[in-house]
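task queued by scheduler; priority normal; single chain, no ligands, no partner chains; default sampling; output format set to structure tokens
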Amino acid sequence: MNDGSRGTPILSLRGVNTHYGPAHILKDVDIDIYPGEMVCLLGGNASGKTTTLKTMLGYVKPSSGAVFLEGENVNDWTTARRVGHGLTMVPENRRLFKRMTVRENLEIGAYLRHRENHGADYDRIFEMFPRVKERLTQRAGTLSGGEQQMVAMGRALMAHPKVLLMDEPSMGLAPLLVAQNFEIIDQINEAGTTVFMVEQNANMALSIADRGYVLQTGRIVLNDTSQGLLANPQMRQAYLGELEN
């Protein structure tokens, strides 16, 4: 893992402002993510977390400021081009193609690598998610929420991401599945994939992340190591109240 003190960030936002019509969503947002890190973005509902991910992927274009991928300004890049250069997302609520089989959903993750042999990719995913192998011919919409999350993560890994963006990976999962899910995210990061995770479960996210940012009404209000955020009185009062006696 990288402590963020050296080298060039693999993904950055610099002075990013975004608008939906007249609504000003992100306000002068600066974020740096270094190779090998796991970084979380925390905040309440409507704070701008998902808009941050959409801006990184190119679904939303900044009104001002810039997105940098491996040091290159990618504001004018399409989402497909960003994915082709290693930026991939596991979306909120999985967003699988429910009428397609599990195998077909996984294959979609590798659509930019369609000329390659994916045998090793499948082996990696089946080792990580044995249940996915058992469900290959089943329609994705018939899977449980936990199984769908496994398929969504496997689909993203089929793209060979350099940076894996995750939007609310704990949403809609039972507590036991949440813990298992975060263990797998940690394994993915330990294997070398940089992870940027948006999450409302601050305790769980900070338990595995290297660093975190806190977004409040579109502005970054805190930025520290996970340990620093866990010890921060402002953070504890606003987001970690359950830790207080």
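post-processing summary
- Residues 81 and 244 are 45 Å apart (CA to CA).
- The chain has two domains: 1-86+164-245, 93-160.
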